[in-house]
Amino acid sequence: MLCIADARADSRIGEAVLVQKDVLRIAGASTSPISVGDGVVRNETVRTGNDSAARLVMIDSTNLSLSANATLTLDRTVFNDETSYRDIAIRLGTGAFRFVTGHSEKAAYKINTPLATIGVRGTILDIRSQRGQTMVVLQEGAARVCTLTFQCLELTQPGDTAIITAAGQGRSAIRKTNNPSWSFAATCASTSGLCTVTDLASSAPPQDFTGILCGR
Questions:
Q1: What DSSP state is assigned to residue 157?
Q2: Which residues fall in a coiled-coil region (predicted)?
Q3: For residue 65, what are the domain limits?
Q4: Tally of structural domains, the chain
Q5: CA distance linking residue 124 with residue 83, whole number of Å
Q6: What does 170-197 look like in DSSP terms, one character per residue?
Q7: What is the CATH number of the domain that holds 62?
Q8: pLDDT tens digits for 116-127?
């Protein structure tokens, strides 16, 4: 496995394919608007404003849809090759999201919220992260959802939902239902193309990934 130690933190790892109204990138103290076709890079945060939405597609064709008033950070990426990751970590702040896995091995994906860690086994997850609560709704595939104190649930059937609620003093409670009170579907319906799935890996031109196969 090729591994270059001086991986560039500003390497393009995907792009914005849908932008509605106010969508910003935040890198350190700088903030700038994101437009369709703009690249997204490791360690930057994407934030949507009021009545705004965005869909990002990673190089492995992972599709990430964001509702209004949502924040997402691409924490870590380790490339396998030009169209897949060996390791990809995504940190969700507040907001609602739809996550559709791409061509990487399912074990490569790790999603974190302030209250939960999510191991993805494919393929479509709806996630809502609010102050004091995270909800994970399985639409397709399977997932393992854990609290930060390692209480875990397996989601294996469409509609299986994990609800993690803060209980004070660093503790949280987790429970499972198959009758979720929320999903990302209404957000999809309100924004054309937000939940379309784009296969970026099959259509993107070859890129030179020399020096970025050791993401942080």
A1: S
A2: none
A3: 12-192
A4: 1
A5: 19
A6: TEEEEEEESS-S--THHHHHHSTTTT--
A7: 2.60.120.1440
A8: 999 998 789 999
